[in-house]
């Protein structure tokens, strides 16, 4: 990959447990990797040649990352610590002293007297300070003491069954539940309650577990093989016999019984269901309960044209060979489906009905289906063309696709371009096959009949051919009439043209009406008003003097986009001037809307640019013919009248007025150019002087950024006054901020507190407060307001955010660093290092380090060339667009 071909942002992520780990990343280019090959022999990472890929590894790993037209692969391996670059200090030469010479020097030193305290024992602490532990220790006896609660009042009187479920015909019975009005068992353990006698008799008897939920509700949960509910296709009867006695002595006077039932097998999914099928299709049927395929198959009939075709269960080999059916079988619950096929091939072009039941059995219960369940499919017919049409509706304008529909899906593997021939030639023709449809796209012309010849060799997915060539015709109609031109309120005609020409473009318009109105710069506000009030159904007259009103012939070929130059020489009074141009169809079609082109066109040789600051405008006038500065040009701001003259460099300076100036004009001889402050006619913005005010700048920080409810928050801040204007400087706030008032706003927008803090002479302030224990979690904000002389001053308010969360403090921290300097190019290496240490102090040794390296397409803007972008362009007003 060349350095200019593709820009990539390489992002490294890591999970660390170690003192210091170093990783070496190598960026290389591999020309032998195929376009879509992305081998990742590391970890469990799945990558695609999409907008973002990731590579992970623990020690040595390699990954290929598809990045646009070239291939980038990243090699990740153990690195080495990068030693600090130390410049060696030169060693001064010399000879060691002899023992006699050294003794002479030390003999001149005075003796060092011993002082009290020179010799001390090692001061060991009584007990080492333990490292801090996260969380908070709460003393709590275990097991906890029993709660001192009074027993609830026990109901007395006869025993009653207050409710029970399920009842009647139900789609699903997950469990049985019975509730009494009195306690039936004493409070105790689950084991003790399970040993109690059950006052409910269930018929038929089922394996399962009876459970007391409290002392008054009894439930039964079925425990069978493969299901966790009551068996389907069955009828049940539950009874609480008379004489059942509660724990309080209440007796059930009459027996209570009820019945419920679950449905027989119901068809929930099937295949095939859409499109033509082969002559030996596998048929899939899935149910809502367990079935026995050998028992269900005899209840199934495969009927076509009134004839029943014998069927058999499909073999495992046949199922594995069918991608669709095998995928359905893999996704269905085990034991709830069957797959079968006809014993012999089915006849083609036949509608078939698969009828299941009545009498279909279940593997869970004895109930049989009482009604038939069915679905249809059909076998493939002979390959033929069933429809051909142009476009999507009744019209066929130019550029509409030619669509041909066939009876069966086409085999794209055997298609070649000679099978479709188009006459006359269709420029840019492209043939697309979508299942059973061919779509032909190209630059079709209006009012032309195209002939498409479809070869008889065209083949469908069933191996059938069309048999004989077919000739189809597509009659392209006329294009919709259209007129377009400049869509801006102000344009400048080409200054290099031999004569002033205004250009529009038309389709299927024979004549156009052209009107021109001579105007002066003073007419600009009236022109904007005209644009605001313009209505198609109530056309009005623009300002100025009408100097042209004629009908011109377009000389356009039918259905062809035609460039129509309009010579404005006669409308202009000389070679320069200003015109409001209106171009519209000579014969309008419709009452409400018609295409119209209208703009203010200036024919001038003056180029005009303007730059402003809060007080002044700098005007630069140039000659459009060669770009040279234009001296001695009179520039004027309208309607205020401020005027100046350009110097030899083409520059003039104007003082901005207090009220808006909408238009800047420049005049050199008879030539005049205009530059509006704003071309948008619904906005009356103009150039005007803006007050230059001082500004308060805030710097606010807290001690932790993240707090738990109930913790104290400490905040400190500084204020500075930034002077406005070209001589502005940074200074102390002075009387502009003698104090700051603050309000604490919680994550839900409620006020949690407020106060006031004095500002020191150096512009500093601090405050502290405690968060409520019941505060909401999330982002809270402090809203500050300066208290003082803030008139004519920006920035009197400020806000600062912090988080309130419940969290467990981590035991160690991780930091990463880059030990080499980027940017990196293909073939170069990058070295990354990471360090982990305990918050309590000391390194975190002997732990694994996992690296993650990701490659993401990015873009590059050359310095001082913002209009040039290399890589992927992502405009802010649209989704990301890949440049051509």
Secondary structure topology:
Blueprint (H helix, E strand, L loop, with lengths): L7 E9 L3 E10 L23 E5 L3 E7 L2 E9 L20 H9 L53 E5 L2 E2 L6 E5 L9 H5 L6 E3 L4 E6 L3 E6 L12 E6 L15 E6 L5 E5 L4 E2 L5 E5 L5 H4 L3 E5 L2 E3 L1 E3 L2 H6 L1 H9 L5 E6 L8 E6 L16 E7 L5 E6 L11 E5 L13 E4 L6 E5 L2 E5 L6 E7 L15 E7 L5 E3 L5 E3 L8 E7 L3 E8 L5 H10 L11 E9 L8 E6 L9 E9 L11 E7 L2 E7 L3 E8 L10 E5 L4 E3 L5 E5 L7 E6 L2 E6 L17 E9 L3 E2 L4 E11 L7 E2 L7 E7 L5 E8 L5 E7 L7 E10 L5 E2 L2 E8 L7 E7 L10 E10 L10 E9 L1 E2 L9 E2 L13
Parallel strand pairs: 7-13, 15-22, 31-37, 45-53, 46-54
Antiparallel strand pairs: 1-57, 2-5, 2-56, 3-57, 4-5, 6-8, 8-11, 9-12, 10-11, 12-13, 14-16, 16-20, 17-18, 17-21, 19-20, 21-22, 23-24, 24-27, 25-28, 26-27, 28-29, 30-32, 32-35, 33-34, 33-36, 36-37, 38-39, 39-42, 40-41, 40-43, 43-44, 45-47, 47-48, 47-51, 49-50, 49-52, 52-54, 55-56, 58-59
Provide a brief overview of the structure:
The protein is mainly beta and 884 residues long.
Key descriptive features of the protein:
disordered N terminus; 7 domains; 39% strand; disordered C terminus; 884 residues; mainly beta; 5-stranded mixed beta sheet
């Amino acid at each position: 990959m060349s350095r200019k071909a593709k820009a990539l942002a390489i992002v490294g992520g890591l999970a660390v447990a170690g003192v210091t780990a170093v990783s070496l990343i190598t960026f290389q280019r591999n020309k032998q990797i195929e376009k879509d090959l992305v081998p990742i022999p590391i970890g469990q990472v799945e990558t695609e040649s999409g907008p973002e890929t990731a590579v992970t590894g623990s020690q040595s790993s390699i990954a290929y990352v598809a990045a646009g037209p070239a291939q980038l692969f990243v090699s990740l391996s153990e690195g080495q610590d990068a030693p600090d670059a130390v410049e060696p200090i030169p060693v001064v030469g010399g000879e060691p002293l002899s023992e006699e010479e050294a003794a002479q020097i030390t003999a001149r030193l005075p003796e060092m007297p011993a002082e009290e305290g020179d010799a001390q024992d090692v001061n060991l602490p009584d007990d080492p300070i333990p490292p801090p532990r996260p969380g908070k220790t709460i003393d709590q006896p275990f097991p906890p003491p029993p709660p001192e609660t009074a027993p609830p009042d026990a109901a007395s009187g006869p025993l009653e069954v207050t409710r029970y479920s399920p009842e009647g015909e139900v789609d699903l019975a997950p469990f049985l539940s019975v509730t009494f009005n009195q306690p039936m068992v004493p409070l105790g353990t689950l084991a003790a309650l399970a040993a109690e006698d059950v006052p409910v008799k269930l018929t038929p008897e089922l394996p399962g577990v009876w459970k007391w939920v409290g002392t008054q509700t009894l439930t039964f949960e079925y425990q069978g093989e493969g299901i966790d509910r009551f068996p389907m296709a069955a009828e049940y009867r539950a009874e609480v016999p008379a004489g059942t006695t509660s724990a309080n002595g209440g007796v059930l006077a009459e027996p209570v019984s009820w019945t419920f039932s679950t449905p027989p097998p119901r068809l929930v999914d099937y295949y095939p269901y859409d499109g033509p099928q082969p002559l030996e299709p596998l048929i899939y049927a899935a149910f809502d309960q367990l079935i026995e395929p050998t028992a269900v198959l005899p209840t199934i009939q495969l009927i076509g044209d009134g004839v029943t075709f014998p069927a058999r269960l499909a073999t495992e080999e046949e199922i594995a060979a069918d991608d669709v059916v095998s995928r359905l079988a893999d996704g269905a619950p085990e034991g709830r489906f069957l797959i079968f096929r006809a014993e012999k091939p089915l006849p083609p072009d036949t509608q078939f009905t698969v009828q299941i039941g009545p009498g279909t059995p279940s593997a869970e219960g004895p109930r049989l289906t009482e009604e038939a369940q069915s679905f249809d499919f059909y076998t493939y017919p002979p390959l033929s063309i069933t429809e051909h049409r142009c476009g999507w509706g009744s019209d066929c304008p130019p550029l509409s696709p030619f669509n041909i529909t066939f009876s069966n899906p086409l085999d794209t593997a055997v298609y070649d371009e000679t099978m479709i021939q188009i006459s006359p030639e269709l420029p840019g023709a492209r043939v697309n096959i979508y299942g059973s449809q061919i779509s032909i796209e190209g630059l079709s012309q209006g009012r032309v009949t195209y002939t498409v010849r479809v070869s008889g060799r065209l083949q469908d997915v069933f191996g059938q051919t069309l048999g004989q060539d077919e000739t189809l015709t597509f009659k392209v109609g006329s294009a919709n009439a259209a007129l377009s031109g400049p869509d801006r309120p102000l344009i400048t005609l080409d200054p290099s043209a031999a004569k002033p020409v205004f250009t529009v473009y038309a389709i299927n318009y024979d004549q156009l009406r052209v009107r021109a109105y001579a105007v002066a710069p003073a007419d600009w506000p009236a022109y904007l008003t005209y644009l605001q009030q313009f209505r198609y159904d109530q056309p009005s007259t623009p300002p100025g003097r009408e100097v042209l009103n004629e009908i011109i012939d377009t000389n356009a070929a039918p259905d062809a986009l035609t460039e129509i130059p309009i010579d404005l020489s006669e409308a202009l009074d000389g070679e320069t001037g200003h015109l409001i141009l209106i171009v519209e169809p000579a014969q309008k079609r419709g009452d409400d809307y018609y295409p119209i082109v209208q703009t203010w066109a200036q024919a001038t040789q003056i180029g005009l640019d303007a730059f402003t600051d809060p007080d002044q405008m700098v005007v630069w006038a140039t000659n459009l013919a060669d770009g040279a500065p234009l001296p001695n040009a009179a520039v004027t701001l309208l309607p205020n009248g401020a005027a100046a003259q350009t110097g030899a460099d083409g520059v003039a300076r104007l003082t901005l007025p207090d009220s808006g100036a909408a238009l800047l004009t420049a005049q050199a001889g008879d030539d005049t150019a205009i530059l509006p402050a704003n071309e948008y006619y619904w906005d009356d913005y103009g150039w005007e002087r803006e007050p230059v005010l001082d500004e308060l700048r805030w710097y606010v920080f807290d001690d932790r950024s993240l707090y738990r409810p109930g913790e104290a928050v400490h905040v400190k801040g500084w204020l500075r006054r930034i002077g406005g204007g070209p001589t502005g400087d940074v200074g102390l706030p002075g009387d502009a901020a003698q104090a700051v008032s603050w309000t604490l706003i919680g994550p839900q927008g409620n006020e949690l507190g407020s106060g006031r803090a004095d500002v020191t002479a150096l512009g500093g302030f601090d405050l502290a407060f405690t968060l409520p224990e019941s505060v909401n979690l999330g982002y809270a904000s402090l809203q500050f307001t300066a208290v003082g002389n803030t008139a004519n001053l920006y920035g009197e308010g400020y806000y600062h955010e912090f988080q309130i969360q419940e969290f467990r403090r981590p035991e160690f921290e991780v930091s990463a660093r880059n030990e080499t300097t980027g940017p990196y190019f293909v073939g170069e290496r990058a070295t990354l290092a990471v360090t982990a240490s305990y918050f309590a102090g000391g390194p975190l040794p002997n732990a694994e380090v996992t690296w993650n390296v990701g490659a993401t397409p990015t873009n590059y803007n050359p310095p001082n060339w913002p209009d040039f972008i290399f890589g992927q362009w992502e405009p802010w007003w649209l989704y990301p667009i890949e440049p051509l």
